[in-house]
Design brief:
Blueprint lengths: L1 H5 L6 E2 L5 E8 L5 H6 L4 E6 L1 H5 L7 H14 L4 E5 L27 H6 L1 H14 L4 E6 L5 H20 L10 E5 L2 H5 L1 H4 L5 E4 L1 H8 L18 H16 L3 E4 L9 H7 L4 E4 L4 H10 L2 H12 L4 H15 L1
Parallel strand pairs: 2-3, 2-9, 3-4, 4-5, 5-6, 6-7, 7-8, 8-9
Antiparallel strand pairs: 1-2
Helix pairs in contact: 4-6, 6-7, 12-14
Bound molecules: phosphoenolpyruvate and magnesium ion (MG).
Phosphoenolpyruvate (PEP) binds next to strand 3 and helix 10.
Keywords: Cytoplasm, Kinase, Magnesium, Metal-binding, Phosphotransferase system, Sugar transport, Transferase, Transport
Main location: cytoplasm
Protein name: Phosphoenolpyruvate-protein phosphotransferase
Length: 325
């Protein structure tokens, strides 16, 4: 099977009925780009920039970050690299950045909430990204956005730094997509509003499931509530995709679910544009896509959205897949 998947390395990600999708990879450092190219990745859908911070004994300065983003962009040879701004907090800590003691860190001071409060961290990162944009195809996304106001504030700081660099004669790309993660249920419910401001959405199912089911993603006692096929979650995902498309924007997914072979038929049926996963899952997913057509997966989605449980939907998909052979 592996040999069969390897043949797809240089092929497009296209369904049986000729619809194009993008298969992308999640990375943590620029060195991970090699595996993305080796496995036929069409983009980097999530560069978790916090690894730059976590692998360092001190705050990585603008220059150090610039070098990292530039290398990733160059090594992808013009294919898009979506860099997520710092997603510290929750379970991710930095020795050199003391955060407040909190009862509920996953509900606390993390990600964009820190960036908006501490522009001394946020601005150098945005400047590094803007400078790197001259060397490849960089897109930027903000993590943990919950409100229109948060997005607008983050975007305004980005616009300011962009203008500052241009005034200083620094070269930046003419256009950079600026989007957001969809991982907070409140944001999903107003996705139609957010779609007017964000250039794209990327659904972070790891956190979206955690917050939708109110179940800590690392707590084994409640792990049964990790239910990616539950109609409750599917309805949220559908809302994100439909809202993006209504404004002419694209929707991707960068949580674990994007490379889940049971989920992919459902996501295709809902019209998800971009699937970002670990590099080693990409070719298998491309192979699966080739076997599916978007009309029958859309019919499957109609049934799934009307189901009652996670298990019922999983069974539906398995039956559907068995019927293909
Ligand atoms: C997610 O929440 O699904 C996601 C992709 O981000 P992370 O796993 O880094 O929180
Ligand atoms: Mg997340």
């Amino acid at each position: 099977q592996k040999a069969e998947w390897d043949k797809l390395k240089d092929e497009a990600s296209v369904s049986k009925d000729g619809k194009n999708f993008t298969i992308a990879a999640n990375i943590g450092t620029p060195d991970d780009v090699a595996a993305v190219n080796d496995n036929g990745g069409e983009a980097v859908g999530l560069f978790r920039s916090e690894f730059l911070y976590m692998d360092s004994a001190e705050l990585p300065d603008e220059e150090k970050q610039f070098q990292a983003y530039k290398k990733a962009a160059e090594d992808m040879h013009g294919k898009q690299v979506v860099v997520r701004t710092m997603d510290i907090g929750g379970d991710k800590h930095l020795d050199y950045l003391p955060l407040p003691e909190e009862m509920n860190p996953f509900l606390g001071y993390r990600a964009i909430r820190i960036s908006l409060k501490q522009p001394d961290l946020f601005r150098p990162q945005l400047r590094a990204l803007l400078r790197a944009s001259a060397f490849g195809n960089i897109a930027i996304m903000f993590p943990m956005i919950g409100t229109v106001d948060e997005f607008k504030r983050a975007r305004a700081i980005y616009d300011e730094e962009r203008q500052n660099l241009i005034n200083d004669g620094v070269k930046v790309a003419d256009h950079i997509d600026v989007g957001m993660m969809m991982e907070v249920p409140a944001a999903v419910l107003i996705a139609d509003k957010l779609a007017k401001y964000a250039d794209f959405f990327s659904i972070g199912t790891n956190d979206l499931i955690q917050y939708t089911f109110a179940a800590d993603r690392g707590n084994e006692h409640v792990s049964y509530l990790y239910q990616p096929y539950n109609p409750s979650l599917l309805r949220l995902i559908k809302k994100v995709i439909d809202s993006a498309h209504a404004e002419g924007k694209w929707a991707g997914m960068c949580g674990e679910m994007a490379g889940d072979q049971v989920a992919v038929p459902l996501l295709m049926g809902m019209g998800l544009d971009e699937y970002s996963m670990s590099a080693t899952s990409m070719l298998q997913t491309r192979s699966l896509m080739k076997k599916l057509d978007t009309k029958s997966t859309a019919d499957l989605v109609d049934k799934a959205l009307d189901a009652e449980t996670n298990e019922d939907v999983a069974d539906m998909v398995k039956q559907f897949m068995a019927g293909l052979k």
